Amino acid sequence: MPFALGIDQGTTQTTAVIVDGQGRTVARHSIQLPIRFPQPGWVEQDPWDILATVRRAVAPLLEHYQIDAIGFDNQGETFLLWDSTTGQPLTPAIVWQDQRGLAVCEQLASVVDADWLRQKTGLMLDSYFSAPKLRFILDHDPGLRKQVATGDVRFGTVESWVLWQLSHGQLHVTDPSTASRTLLFDINRLVWDEALLALFDIPRSLLPQVVPSAGYVGELDFGTGKRYPLYALLVDQQAALFGQSCFAPGTMKCTFGTGTFLLMNTGQQPRLSNHGLLTTVAWQMDGYTTYALDGGDFAAGAAVQWLVENVAMLRDATASAEMAQQAQDETLVFVPALAGLAAPHWQSQARGTLFGLSRATTQADIVRATLNGIACRVVDIAQALEQDAGYALKELKVDGGPSANPYLMQYLADMLDIEVKVAAEQEATAVGVANLAIHAVRGIDLNELSAQWQAQAVYRPQMAPAVRRARLDRWQRALAGVKQFYG
């Protein structure tokens, strides 16, 4: 029986799954990926580490299953440069959280028409995206800029780098969903845009070929003596949207990981946001392009990890739910802007802030406030999605590690005042890109995939409306204070 292999190359780990012909997961394997912080605001990974985790994640699965299609999803905005002759990296992998492009954004802000940029890219001028960081690197390394001028340097998000290596330099590709995260891609014409390249002073020779999200791409060699066909490429969050069966306009998912990312399918026309969200390509398949509205926060799992590693308030992330239940102080508010405020506020300079500390404050109070803050950031984004898309939210499908936290999920349902449904399939990202590969090969029916989706748990709102309003009001006042202080 043939199977599909889905590879999710994420920020903190690479996960590989085996999916059968009906889109059901039969095996999985994950490998952790190191990350480093060489100086404040800089976030990097070793490109060889990324490649190694992919090889190690898939190795045991290739031994036991007959693979006839591979799907690969990636971190989105994380990128690097490498030498096309030797294949050697010329930069670290610059992670999406990295803020070294802030100075470039400040420099260009006075000369860029924000509406023009948004119309072309669906994005805003922010260091979150690849182009400002790439411009920073080239501006601060004259030798690298000179090497780029020879035409022997390649740019790529992490999937481009891995696929280049696994194809022995034969594939330098990306898909429209990933290209749409660079600030160099016109999401209307679905091409690299010359005006954007000129704005960021990026040579066209650096960039990969853009291929459809679903369709035959090429052959990959994992060192087993056999080559495997690649049939799907996506950004991780778009892969999760597909994996959560959000195929109809108005359907939405929230993935909890290092950050929290909400995407809503908006159909086959790009819908621009008036409330601080992003417009992005969801996927391109079967000759058409689907778009999505996108809102992300950068500190969800990362905020809990901060409690574990930096301030030693938790033995591990799983202990947060139990400790939150022990808290006594209902008034403590934490705005978890540990990597700035992303959608819908976009204040990169903002920092995490606690309101309401007293001599009576305990570690349990701070843990609860952190989880509450994560949930309230989701509420911020979900409300903006409602306003932009014109769809009233009826439920929220969630996946990712922190979705296993019952306190966080119940508080989220209470604050949103809708049902929160935790996907039974927690690897929605890897499964999504595997299912897209199956669709490309055998045309698996999307209605069939939707019918198979199941919830592991459903959280229904229990909080009294007056209590909800009071807590959201307190949250909004705290958020306004942070925005004013760091504005």
Please provide a written account of the structure.
By secondary structure, the chain is of the alpha+beta class. The protein has a domain of 234 residues: Nucleotidyltransferase, domain 5 (2-Layer Sandwich). It contains 16 helices and 23 strands. It has a seven-stranded mixed beta sheet with strand order 17-18-16-15-21-22-23, with helices on both faces. A six-stranded mixed beta sheet has the order 3-2-1-5-14-13, with helices on both faces. A hairpin with a 3-residue loop joins β1 and β2. The longest helix has 27 residues. 51% of the residues are buried.
Which labels suit this protein?
single chain; 487 residues; alpha+beta; Nucleotidyltransferase, domain 5; seven-stranded mixed beta sheet; six-stranded mixed beta sheet
* Percentage of residues assigned to helices: 25-40%
Shape: globular
CATH class of the domain at 3-236: Alpha Beta
What is CATH's topology name of the domain at 3-236?
Nucleotidyltransferase, domain 5
Q: What is the CA-atom radius of gyration, in angstroms?
A: 22 Å
Largest beta sheet: strand ordering:
17-18-16-15-21-22-23
Count of runs of 4 or more consecutive helical residues: 16
Strand content: 15-25%
Q: Sheet bearing the most strands, described?
A: 7 strands, mixed
Full CATH superfamily name of the domain at 3-236: ATPase, nucleotide binding domain
End-to-end Cα distance, whole Å, is 58 Å
Query: What's the rounded overall pLDDT mean?
Result: 93
Query: Judging by the overall fold, what is the CATH architecture of the domain at 3-236?
Result: 2-Layer Sandwich
Strand pairing plus helix content: what structural class? alpha+beta
